[in-house]
Design goal:
Shape: elongated
Number of domains: 1
Number of helices: 6
Order of helices and strands: HHHHHH
Radius of gyration: 15 Å
Largest sheet: none
Distance between the termini: 17 Å
Helix content: over 70%
């Protein structure tokens, strides 16, 4: 198992890539599902402002910036969990292990974010995108984790 320090170091790039991938899919699906690419990202600021944050359709310093920051932080957190649980295996066994670890970590993220944490601490995407789009966003998180973890160690 990777050390805490190495897992934290590796999680920054891996988690950033995963968060960017998930946010891109959430924006794409938000446009398709609810007519606004920004609204599901704004919805994450419901942690601060309540569920009315999901009603904000366009860019807002009050909603978009915190939403993006919360999502980036969550991506890095899940990148840390990925590297702590699966980092050594993906380093040794390559892309197949990275994909399996990414999928498992994304499933764990879903379980924690939508079934264990209080609703107020969820990403809030479900307020603006469909369940199918949620699945795609989790797939993007998994792929982003695998992509980041598959980069050479000296680049992480």
């Amino acid at each position: 198992m990777k050390s805490w320090q190495q897992s934290l170091k590796d999680s920054v790039l891996t988690g950033s890539i995963a968060a960017a991938a998930a946010c891109a899919v959430v924006a794409w699906r938000g446009q398709r599902d609810s007519g606004s690419a920004i609204a599901p990202l704004n919805a994450t600021s419901h942690m601060i402002w309540g569920n009315d944050a999901a009603k904000v359709e366009g860019f807002s310093w009050q909603h978009t910036v915190p939403g993006l920051l919360f999502n980036a932080g969550a991506g890095i957190w899940w990148g840390f969990i990925y590297h702590k649980l699966f980092g050594e295996q993906s380093d040794r066994h390559g892309l197949p292990a990275a994909l399996a670890g990414g999928a498992t970590t994304a499933a764990l993220a879903y379980l924690v974010d939508y079934h264990l944490l209080p609703q107020r601490l969820s990403p809030g995407w479900e307020l603006r995108i469909s369940p199918g789009s949620m699945l795609l966003s989790l797939g993007a998180l998994a792929a982003g984790l695998a992509a980041g973890a598959s980069m050479p160690a000296q680049n992480r």
